[in-house]
């Protein structure tokens, strides 16, 4: 049974696409509230991106961090593409604290990714 849901997102066309740097940046964050020990926290992440024109292939690291913007990484992936990609993943955590914060971050060595949208982070707390 769903206890709580929070979603932050940016739709395609609502922002100027931007180049991802080698320094990690926060795309968005969510707060899981009303969490009891043992509750499942389902985290859904989505990032649409493309390679810059000056590269044959794009590459991006997508991270999900817990607690603080530089907190522990609970999910990490390295994605690559020849033109564009739309990454959608789900991560499940077991609740420990009544309130938990999660951060969706990205980085790209050699600036090999452009965020075009949409991107989102959604958390759903389940009993």
Structure commentary:
28% of the residues are buried. It is built from no helices and 9 strands. The model has no long low-confidence stretch (mean pLDDT 97). With 127 residues, the protein is mainly beta. The N and C termini lie close together (5 Å).
> What oligomeric state do the depicted chains represent?
single chain
Radius of gyration: 15 Å
Give the DSSP E fraction (strand runs of 2 or more residues).
over 45%
Q: Can you count the beta strands? A: 9
Give, in order, the helices and strands: EEEEEEEEE
Helix content: under 10%
* Unreliable spans: none
Q: Provide a count of the helices.
A: 0
Broad structural category = mainly beta
User: Termini, distance in Å?
Assistant: 5 Å
Shape: elongated
* Overall pLDDT metric: 97
Relevant terms:
127 residues; mainly beta; single chain; four-stranded antiparallel sheet; five-stranded antiparallel sheet; 0% helix; 9 strands
Protein topology:
Layout: E1 2-10, E2 18-19, E3 25-32, E4 40-50, E5 58-66, E6 73-81, E7 84-94, E8 100-107, E9 114-126
Antiparallel strand pairs: 1-9, 2-9, 3-8, 4-7, 4-9, 5-6, 5-8
Brief characterization of the structure:
The protein has strands at residues 2-10, 18-19, 25-32, 40-50, 58-66, 73-81, 84-94, 100-107, 114-126.
